[in-house]
Amino acid sequence: MTVHSAATPNILRELPSHVAMANAVRFLAADAVERANSGHPGMPLGMADVAAVLFSRFLKFDAADPRWPDRDRLVLSAGHGSMLLYALLHLTGYEAMTLNELQRFRQWGSKTPGHPEYGHTEGVETTTGPLGQGFATAVGMALAERMLNARFGDGLVDHYTYVIAGDGCLMEGLSHEAISLAGHLKLARLIVLFDDNQITIDGATSLSCSDDQLIRFLASGWSVRRVNGHDHDAIAQAISEERETDRPSLIACRTVIGYGAPTRQGTEKAHGAPLGSEELGKAREALRWPYPPFEIPDELLARWRAVGARGRIPRHGWMERLEKLDPFERASFEDALHSEIGSEVGFALREIECRFADAHPRIATRQASQQVLEAITQATTNLLGGSADLTHSNLTLTEAQQPVRPGAYGGNYIHYGVREHAMAAAMNGIALHGGFVPYGGTFLAFSDYCRPAIRLAALMGVRVIHVMTHDSIGLGEDGPTHQPVEHLASLRAIPNLLVFRPADAIETAQAWDCALRAAHRPSVLCLSRQALPVLKRSSASENPVARGAYVLGEPQGPRDATLIATGSEVAIAMAAAALLHQRGLHAAVVSMPCFELFAAQPAEVRAEVLGSAPRVGVEAAVEGTWRRWLGETGEFVGMTGFGASAPAGELYSRFGITAEAVAAAAERAIARTKAEPVQA
Ligand SMILES: Cc1ncc(C[n+]2csc(CCOP(=O)(O)OP(=O)(O)O)c2C)c(N)n1
Q1: What is the pLDDT of residue 677?
Q2: DSSP symbol at 547
Q3: Does the active-site annotation cover 420?
Q4: Which run of H or of E encompasses 616?
């Protein structure tokens, strides 16, 4: 390795400035990987030139205010190249990204985790790592930018969304949905910088992929071109011209993975392992970088810091424009930015809840949800609806909403097309960008198509609301392909996700209230296709769904059993309690619309709701984690396999999810616990 000394040549006089700037990125990244003894040096070494051009000549940002709302968004979709971003954040002067943090790459508690994590590291716009997610999330950001621009104008909202994506991102099926949606919507402010190095982990992309990416994007309505990803002027010209097109842009940057590492560059060996000191030393020689690890000459650092400060003047100009707004407009802009839902929505929700309580409508919870949406979309402009081509089944569109169209972004409803995965990822991007609380619909059985994006929403802690209808065998004749059975259990397994399954119209309004209030959690509302009665409850004073579970019916006298149910099966549990009553047994009925909120209640509250009598759980789905609420002696009445195609009523009786079956299960559990009492 070359040692820095007084005799070290001043490479800043010998190399063009932009090359030295890119090399600073390269060696911070490669040295951090080396020190961590793990990570991915190939992508940062290959894309350093493109990133250096983007940051130094185009990206609108101010390192002193990483959350400035009118900053350009940069999404590192190829999240394994995280050190590229961390190096740039350090060089441009993000306060929290110290040299020490770079030296602690991938260590416990550092700001430099293996893949970029939103909310953990300032300057990281979204969590990336699962390939393709960042790309599709960026589509949502670019859409939110245009929509907010349509509402508030160029003076306040006028920025680009850039994506750095690799071969892996473009191989993922999600990329197809994202490309297609962005092309259709003509998201001209979206610019994808494709790290076209023709290498993935297994080797050359030709092992597994023969796509002509340019033609693929072109066919979806993008502006496309290829550049030499190591030619700074060509990169700059490409970005400059693509910013002016009326379509989203793909710039395929032909790069060499591991650029500068003499024996590994251009091969998969550069992708995901430290280069080793010998190779790294030779790379230093090849790229004429005489400095020891983590040392950046002052003059070079000053150039980078100037890049980080370049946005200060535009940011101040923006702040002045904001201050000059009349107070009403300013407040509505700031409310939108913070995705405020506002007290009017709370009032609207109370009102519709009272209406349901008075009228007792026997409607599907998806219909109740539509009525809730009718009320709340009139009370706020910050809700953004949508569906993956199931608008009339999910009942997600309201009178107050207009669809967003290509080039006309003034609406507030997105026809996502049959693209569930892109919808879920774009909703994450919309929420991350700010401006709207997105909700989007599909069938619960297709939540699997959204799952990777839902998982990231939960990991990032962003408020997106999934309206998932047709939530059980109760959907009937469409049959087992469309009947969710394992989906509730599988969604409940995702940490930080709220899964609601309301029992009637009133609980539906209350579940919407909870989902809207959960500012840092995504929610899934699981709603019925079939009509459900409004259940009798003792008091309507507060929102019991917020406690996750509550006693809907308490028998007179001590409980012999507690019947716990969700959604459409709560009415079955009520009927079972009536049957048991006729047989001289006292059963309480607990509605449990949200496991997660109930699990978060204090132990005494949970014990009071669950009681000490034997328990029966009822849900038209597989057992999953129900045992947690039932104890060893409890019984579960639900599904043990897939559903079938038949009318809903027949399915319930054929699969044994009936009041009689629940009553019989309660009797068995009571008999069993006479010998072995239940733990509270
Ligand atoms: C969904 C998903 N599948 C697999 C991986 C594991 N993985 C990480 S990087 C990578 C190869 C990506 O190749 P490319 O995008 O060309 O990156 P480069 O080799 O150029 O760094 C794979 C398969 C992942 N991160 N996400």
Answers
A1: 58
A2: G
A3: yes
A4: strand 615-618
What is the rounded CA–CA span in Å between residue 230 and residue 253?
8
In residues, how long is the chain?
A: 680
Run of H or E residues at 224: strand 223-228
Nearest residue to 624 (alpha-carbon basis) of 588, 660, 596, 646: 596
C-alpha pair distances (Å), 570 with each of 73, 157, 222, 502, 616: 46, 47, 50, 9, 12
- How far is 276 from 30, CA to CA, in rounded Å? 10
Q: Measured between alpha carbons, how far is residue 456 from residues 117, 131, 447, 495 in Å?
A: 10, 12, 14, 10
> Distance between CA atoms of 494 and 491, rounded to whole angstroms?
6
Query: Quick one: angle between helices 420-433 and 173-185, nearest 10?
Result: 60
Position 3 scores a pLDDT of: 41
Element (H, E) at 561: strand 561-565
Per-residue pLDDT, 452: 98
* Cα dihedral sign, 376-377-380-386: positive
Report DSSP letters for 338-386, one per residue: TT--HHHHHHHHHHHHHHHHHH---EEHHHHHHHHHHHHHHH-S-EEEE
Residue 158 near residue 149 (C-beta atoms within 8 A): yes
Weakly modelled stretches of the chain, pLDDT under 50? 1-7, 680
Provide the edge-to-edge strand list for the sheet that holds 587-591.
Answer: 550-553, 587-591, 561-565, 615-618, 635-637
The closest alpha carbon to 168, from 199, 143, 137, belongs to: 199
Residue 432: Cβ within 10 Å count: 23
Indicate the DSSP class of residue 171.
H
Give the distance (Å) from ligand 1 centre to CA of residue 32.
Answer: 20
Six-digit token string for 440 = 């989007």
Ligand 1 neighbours, Cβ below 6 Å, are 42-43, 78, 80, 129-131, 166-169, 195, 197, 199-201, 257, 271
Q: How far apart are CA 156 and CA 333, in angstroms?
A: 9
Output the CA 357–ligand 1 centroid distance in Å: 53
Q: What local confidence, expressed as pLDDT, does residue 1 receive?
A: 38
Q: Can you tell me which residue has the tokens 């040096």?
A: 41
pLDDT score for 311: 98
pLDDT given for residue 460 in this prediction:
98
Q: How many CA atoms lie within 13 A of 7 on its CB side?
A: 2
